[in-house]
Automatic annotation (TrEMBL):
UniProt xrefs under InterPro entries: LOG_fam, LOG_family_nucleotidases
Pfam families recorded: Lysine_decarbox (PF03641)
Biased composition (Low complexity): 7-22
Compositional bias segments (type: Basic residues): 40-49
Annotated segments matching region Disordered: 1-67
Comp. bias regions, Basic and acidic residues: 23-39
This protein's name: AMP nucleosidase
Domain of life: Bacteria
EC number per UniProt: 3.2.2.4
Organism, scientific name: Alienimonas chondri
Enzyme's top EC category: hydrolase
Reactions listed under catalytic activity: AMP + H2O = D-ribose 5-phosphate + adenine
Length: 400
């Protein structure tokens, strides 16, 4: 039986008999501090989760007539490198415990990547929140409405597959528009009734593999009230975006109607982080706090009104857009955001030959800059400006 024909349950890492043992383990011009930004003025053209809106083509897994030889050669070279690294473990004298961690983590990621590959060009949002939220709680109803609204816009909802907020988002999205990465715990967490048994569910042993998937495979994050795990996920997601370890994406913290969970969180950020200079004022532009589901949905959809994706090409940051700024707007951008450049200025450009693997985005106009790689909040403010100013342009170019 070929790999592609195996049933998911026999192919998944949790079904393997060799399951590893548990190891023992500053910028003065920031315009909108405090986690709040004004709503866009005027109507904004929303993107509806069409397949060709996502930023990267899933790479093929096996050679066939559709796979260019040079791409398959590159993939084969990387696989051989993985094998060589594994061989070195014996020479290193790696312990059995260390080998088990590596073996299990590789199995989990390999299986999860295979699961996500058919959906790589489908817009997805991760939903974080407490597994303990009761079905009668207002937060549950709020998360259910959010999942439903995102599904109506063509977006899938990825959650930790547990109960509470995670189940609510899946109830709203429905089984077809839901994906899950469940964590295997001795308590509290089992797959919820919507995603249980679905081929779009992976059961993982390690939090670090699970958390990688939460940010790698999606195009936005919505975080509802929760406990230690939710706080961990919120702060780690913020850290990855702030440090450039994850491309910009919309982050929205959603509270129940009239609730102040995220208001108290923001007060802590203001008093203990911002006022003491532990973060920059523009860092609060990386997320939005709201109690309104429509605002939460708009925050995510509007982010992709003009902006499509970003990529580094020979050290230059390239922003792929659906509308090219005219000379007047480009001059304004350089005047207001030149601090983003380590050198030179922000310029318009076309697709580079090194972007050949994103062929479906080749026709999109681009902005290029020598990004200083430290001002993610300011970069987000630039994306917000582009989305506000160009959303209604008649010169929109779609990805193929």
């Amino acid at each position: 039986m070929t790999d592609s024909n195996r049933p998911p349950q026999s192919d998944s890492p949790e079904s393997d008999s060799s399951t590893a043992d548990s190891p023992r383990p500053e910028h003065p011009r920031a315009e909108h501090p405090r986690g709040e930004r004004p709503r866009s003025k005027g109507p904004v053209r929303r993107r509806r989760g069409r397949a060709d809106d996502a930023e990267s083509e899933p790479l093929p897994l096996e050679p066939d007539e559709a796979v260019p030889d040079h791409i398959f050669a590159q993939q084969s070279e990387l696989v051989e490198s993985i094998k060589r690294t594994a061989d070195k473990l014996l020479a290193d004298g790696a312990t059995r415990g260390d080998l088990k961690i590596l073996e299990r983590a590789l199995k989990e990621l390999r299986y999860a990547f295979k699961m996500f590959t058919p959906y790589r060009k489908q817009r997805k949002v991760t939903v974080f929140g407490s597994a303990r939220t009761a079905e009668t709680a207002p937060e549950y109803a709020h998360a259910e409405k959010f999942g439903r609204r995102m599904a109506e816009e063509g977006w899938m909802s990825l959650t930790g597959a547990g109960g509470g907020i995670m189940e609510a988002a899946h109830v709203g999205a429905g089984r077809e528009m839901s994906m899950g990465v469940n964590i295997l715990l001795p308590f509290e967490q089992s797959a919820n009734r919507i995603i249980d048994g679905d081929p779009k569910l992976a059961n993982l042993k390690y939090f670090f593999t699970r958390k990688l998937l939460f940010v790698k495979e999606v195009h936005g994050v919505a975080t509802f009230p929760g406990g230690f795990g939710t706080q961990d996920e919120a702060f780690e997601t913020l850290t990855l975006v702030q440090t450039g370890k994850r491309d910009l994406m919309p982050l929205v913290w959603v509270d129940e109607p009239g609730g102040n969970y995220w208001g108290h969180w923001q007060q802590f950020v203001n008093d203990e982080l911002l006022e003491k200079g532990l973060i920059s004022p523009e860092d609060t532009s990386l997320y939005k706090i709201t109690t309104n589901i429509e605002e939460a949905v708009d925050e995510i959809l509007d982010f992709y009104a003009v902006y499509n994706s970003m990529r580094y090409v020979r050290g230059q940051l390239v922003l792929r857009l659906h509308v090219a700024p005219d000379d007047q707007l480009l001059e304004r951008i350089n005047d207001e955001f030149n601090d983003l450049c380590a050198s030179g200025s922000i310029t318009c450009c076309g697709a580079h030959e090194h972007e050949a693997d994103d062929e479906h985005l080749a026709e999109l106009p681009r902005l290029s800059l020598d990004f200083n790689r430290r001002s993610a909040g300011r970069l987000r403010q630039l994306v917000d400006l582009l989305n506000r100013e160009l959303a209604d342009s008649p010169n929109r170019i779609e990805a193929k």
